[in-house]
């Protein structure tokens, strides 16, 4: 008999990892392996895709309220290279790299921790639970890593467009931001970041879980070719871009050097809509689409392959 007020968890009771993989059933990924594999995947991926992230952020900061500085993606790249050389496309990489490794580590660690408890007796994770696990992973990475990391990155990139750049490097920039604005200065746009990351990972893991379940059919242990994993990751990335680009635009504005113009996340959204129109919420979509599809594909490929290696050298069963 169920008592009134009793909370019923949507997840099955957790099973011991050591006893989680009987014959014929899918193995569970140890959270420790997920943290290590996720960190490696995040570091490699950001080194490959950062220039597109730089261009996306520049275009979003190039507000219509002022005379536009850039005429498009190509013009943004051209002006940056002419003014700062090719290295200019990597301005702010250090701040993103320092955050990308722990971000992916937290994301995959939390996802595997939650999904190990959400899988059924055959080791299968259904799409709905995949979405919930992704949501939890996204919220945790937003609070612990993404918000301070993204705030510093956006300030670095925005600082380069000013007449007299004041940040000389990652640690100098962080010191200056904290000295001038306190620790809160690295947590601007927290609400928008939590909404963005939570929806991002919910969408991505929902799509990945759905595609992997479809591909594996009734065999949860069926191997997936890395190219297939990459294709699934690209599809998941594209879905997340179209699903939450408006939140990404709001988050970028809230973390820029002119964030003081906005009273809150809602106020930022209202002002963008009022002064720039609905299309402004999709500024930077094309460069973001290219970056995110490549980003998610690379991360999932590297993550899955590193986990395979760790399963051989690190026995947790």
Automatic annotation (TrEMBL):
Membrane topology recorded in Swiss-Prot or TrEMBL: Multi-pass membrane protein
Entry GO MF terms: antiporter activity; citrate secondary active transmembrane transporter activity
Catalytic activity: citrate(out) + (S)-malate(in) = citrate(in) + (S)-malate(out); citrate(out) + succinate(in) = citrate(in) + succinate(out); cis-aconitate(in) + citrate(out) = cis-aconitate(out) + citrate(in); D-threo-isocitrate(in) + citrate(out) = D-threo-isocitrate(out) + citrate(in)
Repeat (Solcar) residue spans along the chain: 29-117, 128-214, 224-309
Compartments where found: Mitochondrion inner membrane
Predominant subcellular localization, coarse grouping: mitochondrion
Keyword Membrane: yes
Superkingdom of origin: Eukaryota
Keywords: Antiport, Membrane, Mitochondrion, Mitochondrion inner membrane, Repeat, Transmembrane, Transmembrane helix, Transport
Any one Gene Ontology cellular component term annotated for this protein: mitochondrial inner membrane
GO biological process, one term: mitochondrial citrate transmembrane transport
PROSITE patterns: SOLCAR
Described purpose of this protein according to its UniProt entry: Mitochondrial electroneutral antiporter that exports citrate from the mitochondria into the cytosol in exchange for malate. Also able to mediate the exchange of citrate for isocitrate, phosphoenolpyruvate, cis-aconitate and to a lesser extent trans-aconitate, maleate and succinate. In the cytoplasm, citrate plays important roles in fatty acid and sterol synthesis, regulation of glycolysis, protein acetylation, and other physiopathological processes.
Family under the similarity heading: Belongs to the mitochondrial carrier (TC 2.A.29) family.
Protein name: Solute carrier family 25 member 1
Origin organism lineage: Eukaryota, Metazoa, Chordata, Craniata, Vertebrata
